[in-house]
Every structure is written in C-alpha cells, then in structure tokens.
Amino acid sequence: MNSSGPIRISLVIPAHNEERFLPRLLDSVDVARGRYRHGAESLEVIVADNVSTDDTAAVARTRGCLVVSVEERRIASVRNGGAEAATGDVLCFVDADSEIHPDTLNAIEDSLATGRVVAGATGVRMERWSLGIAATYALFMLMVWTLRMDTGVVFFIREDFLTIGGYDERRFFAEDVQLLWDLRRVGRKRGQQLTRLRSFKALGSTRKFDLHGDWHYFSDLFRLVPLMLRSPRATNDFAKKYWYGEQRAPERDARAR
Question: How does 148-186 read in b/e, with b if 16+ C-beta sit within 10 Å?
Fold first, then answer.
C-alpha cells in the first residue's frame, strides 16, 4: 500500500488481534485510495499492532501497511504510537473493524481545504440493526449533536495534533473525545470548528453488541456514570474490563466465523 512518493494523508489503524476484520477494512481503503484525487501514492496506511497474538501484523504487512508495535495496552498509547510513524500532513484514525466510504479521502481533503475546519469525523452506520442498537445509536446521536463530535474516520492536521500533545495517555477510554475537545480549542483561536462528514459514514462494527447484548450500553452506562463521579480508579477498572478484557484470541475468532 505504501509508496516512496509524497505522502499527504496518514491513516492510522489501532489493532489488537484483528486478523479477522482487518482485511475487510483494508479492502475498503483500497477502493478509497483508488478514487483519491491526489493519487494512491499520497496515502500511507499504518497499523499500530498492540501486542496481538494472532496474525494481525502479518496480514497488515502482506497488504503493504507499515506496522508499528505498541506494547502498552491503552488505546491512547496505541494511537499515539501509530501517529509517531506518520509522515503525512493530515492524520486520520479508524478502528480496525470498520469499513470506510469510497470517497472518504476526497471528502476529508475538501473539508480541510475550506480553512474553516480544525478537525472532523465521518460518523458511522451500523452493520446490523435491532431495537436495542437503534436505541443506543439514538442516545449517542444526542451527544453527537450536543457536542458536535463524532466517531468513524477522525481527521485533523498533524501539526495541530503535535501542538496539543496527541491523545491523553492517562485515559483508558474517551481519549478520542478529549482530543477533539483540545483541537476545538486550538481551532477556535483561528475561527475554525469541528465538522461531521455525514454523507461519508464508515461502517461501524456491532461485535460489542454481539458479545454483550443489544441493550448492554444502557446497563453499562448506568454503572459507569456513578463510578466516574465516585472514583477514578474504579472507573479505570471498569474500563479495563470492558474495553481491554476481551483479548479476541485467534481460536475465539475461528469459532465465530
């Protein structure tokens, strides 16, 4: 995937035991780079491999990605580890179990070219729906509309990322929200704002719903909020169990196929 030519966009993919989903994402990246008006050689893809015990790194290398190893089991550290290897003017981040829209790269270019945008995100559409998933989606959309922050493919200028010091590695979760808050403050001084590319949504995985149930966000949210008010340590313990406890061992993925 990578080339010796000039790099415009660096796409960073944090990955822990993602051999099952990574090819699907990289297939969608190939389509997007084929449509990229600056040329396929202007995109580099970096997989930040977070102590995977499966063939994640091998899959990434086979597909031409630059693989960076990150030992710390904390998503902010994994994101920053991938960003350290990036050479593009624009940084993008996307989860390994996603798929991106075919025109994502051009949409990002168009958005940043206006000069009015400091950072943005595409948002997501779910790969399957149920009443519980729809209710969860609606709940999160309320926060998205209120905060003007979204998920999916998140993008910004690399120099701004360096200015704020990257993702906050003290956080076990919500590091992406904190980053956008920090970038919004940077942009406000220049008359820039956050944006959402709603016509170019990524496909969002539902594997957490598959594992924990379609309504689990409501019960987990009610458990998490009191912890956040009471004890940072208890909050981190919850986060470690929920976001880092599932190792996605190769044999489990094999049974899921």
Answer: ebbbbbbbbbbebbeebebbbbebbbebbebbbebbbeb
Identify the H or E element spanning 48: strand 43-49
Q: What does the alpha-carbon distance between residue 205 and residue 194 come to, in Å, rounded to a whole number?
A: 24
Tell me the whole-structure pTM to 2 decimals.
0.87
**226 vs 101, more confident:** 101
With CA atoms as reference, report the closest residue to 246 among 215, 216, 222. Answer: 216
Provide CATH code, domain 9-128+148-205. 3.90.550.10
pLDDT at 40: 96
Cα–Cα distance measured from residue 245 to residue 249, given in angstroms and rounded to the nearest whole number:
11
**For the chain, what are the domain ranges?**
9-128+148-205
* pLDDT higher than 70, residue 195: yes
Residues 184-193: pLDDT tens digits? 999 999 999 9
Nearest in space to 158 (alpha carbons), one of 35, 73, 46: 46
| β-strands 154-157, 117-121 pairing | antiparallel
Q: Strand, coil or helix: what is 26?
A: helix
CA 78/CA 13 separation, integer angstroms: 9
Least confident of 21-35, 80-94, 126-140: 126-140
- β-strands 154-157, 90-93: how paired? antiparallel
Question: Which residue matches tokens 């960003």?
Answer: 83
Largest CA distance in the chain: 52
| Contact assessment for residue 65 and residue 45, using Cβ atoms and an 8 Å cutoff | yes
Give the position of tokens 């949210």.
221
Q: Is residue 49 predicted with pLDDT exceeding 80? A: yes
Locate 180 and state its tokens.
């956008």
From the list 173, 184, 176, the residue with the least C-alpha distance to 153 is: 176
